[in-house]
Amino acid sequence: MIREYRTIQEINGPLMVVRRVQGVTYDELAEIELADGSVRRCKVLEVNGDNAVVQLFEASAGINLANSKVRFLGHPLELAVSDDMLGRVFNGMGHPIDGGPEILAAEYRDINGLPMNPAARDYPNEFIQTGISSIDGLNTLVRGQKLPIFSGSGLPHAALAAQIARQARVLGDDAGNFAVVFAAIGITFEESNFFIEEFKRTGAIDRTVLFTNLANDPAVERIATPRMALTAAEYLAFEKNMHVLVILTDITNYAEALREVSAAKKEVPGRRGYPGYLYTDLATMYERAGRQLGKSGSITMIPILTMPEDDKTHPIPDLTGYITEGQIILSRELFRRGVNPPVDVLPSLSRLKDKGVGPGKTREDHAGTMNQLFAAYSTGKENKELMSILGEAALSPTDLLYAKFADEFEKRYVSQGVDENRSIEETLDLGWDLLSILPKAELKRIKPEFIEKYLPKKEG
C-alpha cells in the first residue's frame, strides 16, 4: 500500500526533508503532488530514523510545504528494456524523445546495477575495429575492455565519439550481432542535435540506443543517465547475447553533477571539492562493463572526459585511469597542426592490446609492426627536437629519415578524415608503407619473415 505524507519539513535547493516516514529505503523513487495537481519526481538520498532526505529531479520552485504531499513508490528508478530500444532516442530519464511510441517493456530493470563479480568475468581477448588507425593499429580496443578517451576543452572529442559509434564493428561470425549504446551527459542542445543527425545521416541509428541529457537538465538526471545506458547495455549483452559498445560523453559533466549534489548534502569534500567517494562511484559504473563466463555477449566501454586545464592529474582523469585498462589521450598541439583526430600516440595506452592482435584476430604481423611504429615515432620526435636545437647538419642521414618518418606518420597514419573508415588490413599496410621510409636494418622489432612478406619493395 502506497502512503502519502504531508510532512515536508524543509526544502534546500534540490533537497527536501520529509518527517515521520515508515518503511522508506535508500534510492527509492517518490512523487510530490503539488496543490495544483502537478507531479514532480524525486528519489531518496538518505534515511535517518523516521526522517528521509529526498532529491528532486526537477526544480523546487513553486512547492508549498503545507499543501504538497509525497508518495514513496516502493521501488528505485527503473528503465523499461526490450529489443525495440535499438534505433530510438531517449532523454536522461529513459523516456523516448524521438516522437515514437513508448517502449513496450520486456521487463523493468533497476538502473543501479551491480559491478560485475570478478569471479564471473571472462578475459577480454577479441578485437573490435573502430576504423581509426591510431586506435586499431597502436592502442587496440578489445571486446569487454574499458578504454577512456582523455580530451580537453575545444578538442574534437564529440566528432571522434560519433565516428567510433558509426564505424565500430566486430569481425567474423558475430559481425551482425553488434550494437552501440551512446549516452551524452550534460551536453548542449547543438551537440545533442549533432549526434542524432549524424547517426541518422549514416544509418548507424538503426543499431544504436541513444540517451541525451542536456546541460539545462537537473543534476540528478545527469547522475542517472550513464546508469540508464549501462542498464540498456546489460540487457542487450547478457539477455540478447549482443556485443555492445557503450560510449559515455562527457564523464566530467557527470562528476560535476556529483559534486553539486554532494555540496547540497553538506558532505565533507575531498580533492578539489569532489566527494571523497568519487573513486567508488566511478568504479561502480565502469566495472559494469566486461565479459561474463558462460555468456556470449559483451560490454565494451569508451568513457570520454575533458580534462580541466588539460591536467592529467585532475581527480577525474586520475581516478578513471586507475579503474580502466588504459587511455587514449588527445593532443592540443597536434590539433593546432591540423592532425585529426589529434591522438597523442606515445602517452596513449591500451593495456589489453596484446590480447586482441595476431593470427585469427587481426593479422600475424600486427604485434611487430605496432612495436616498430611506436619505437620509430619516438625516435623521430627526439630527432626533430635535436634538429630544432642543433640544426639539421648535426643529424646523421638515418636520423633525418627518422625525423621524416615522424612527420609522415602524423600526417598519414594518425590523421584521417572524419568519414574515413580504415579496415585493419588498410591500417597495417599503411604502417608498412611508412616503415619503408627507414632502412631495412632499422626494423629490429619485426620478425625477418614478416619483413620479407609485407615490406613494400623499393623500385630500382
Properties at a glance:
alpha/beta; 22 strands; 460 residues; ten-stranded mixed β-sheet
SSE arrangement:
Elements: E1 4-5, E2 8-12, E3 15-18, E4 28-33, E5 39-48, E6 51-56, E7 69-76, E8 78-81, E9 89-91, E10 107-110, E11 121-122, E12 127-129, H1 133-136, E13 141-142, E14 149-151, H2 157-167, E15 169-170, E16 178-187, H3 189-202, E17 208-214, H4 219-238, E18 243-249, H5 251-264, H6 278-286, E19 290-292, E20 298-306, H7 315-323, E21 326-329, H8 332-336, E22 349-350, H9 366-390, H10 397-414, H11 424-435, H12 448-454
Helix pairs in contact: 2-3, 4-5, 6-7, 9-10, 9-11, 10-11
Characterization of this structure:
The protein has 460 residues and is an alpha/beta fold. Helices cover 32% and strands 23% of the residues. It is built from twelve helices and 22 strands. The chain has helices spanning 133-136, 157-167, 189-202, 219-238, 251-264, 278-286, 315-323, 332-336, 366-390, 397-414, 424-435, 448-454, and strands spanning 4-5, 8-12, 15-18, 28-33, 39-48, 51-56, 69-76, 78-81, 89-91, 107-110, 121-122, 127-129, 141-142, 149-151, 169-170, 178-187, 208-214, 243-249, 290-292, 298-306, 326-329, 349-350. Strands 9, 11, 14, 16, 17, 18, 19, 20, 21 and 22 form a ten-stranded mixed β-sheet that branches. The protein has a seven-stranded antiparallel β-sheet with strand order 1-7-4-5-6-3-2, with no helix packed on it. It has a three-stranded antiparallel β-sheet with strand order 13-12-15, with no helix packed on it.
